[in-house]
């Protein structure tokens, strides 16, 4: 595997034009690049962490929420997926799942090495899917991993996978999601995909309104477990129907031994937005 070492985080302002050009030039492929992006000496800005915690609903502190390092990895993920040898255009891809494993609590004063690569291109009933793997290391030891699964629609197998579907549960909480949460999360995450920012730009991509970021819904769900999380755990989610902004969503959780399961639903219709689990290691 080829390693591409970076001295600083890639500039998102330069990557978005590359993503737009890629949507015009790329049509697909059968292989993923064998390049791994690596950045050493990654540190956390306390002010940025505080802003992230406020937007996502976490308490302020010197321990990173398990979803926060995804923000550190996002520029490298974009750099990887806008490279000329990446087979799919970034625009139009669907984020269908995210699995984060925290091997131990991560502290604000630590310095990390960040690695990002793509792997496991495979068929999907609606097209092709693949994983983008991101890792944080301290020394040579991985302390955090993130697997984001993306779907490229078109030319799918047509073979539907069986999915259990629960009836709409009684909520533990009602989320009143404001219409500007997409812009607020974009400010702290750098993810300025136009489908999240404004109804007009979202409609240009086929959505009736702006939609919340999937990783915001995951982070906000994880914030509900603060004070009950073990030091080492995996939080895994599948993204279902988009959260159209503004929204009223029903959030429910239940325990499974020492683990947890959770779901987010449209509060007005029996349509799931997200399902997930927290499993202790």
Automatic annotation (TrEMBL):
Family, per the entry? Belongs to the enoyl-CoA hydratase/isomerase family.
What name goes with this protein? MaoC-like domain-containing protein
Write down the species.
Amycolatopsis coloradensis
Q: Enumerate the Pfam families for this protein.
A: MaoC_dehydratas
Q: From which domain of life does this come?
A: Bacteria
**Which residue range or ranges hold the MaoC-like domain?**
183-263
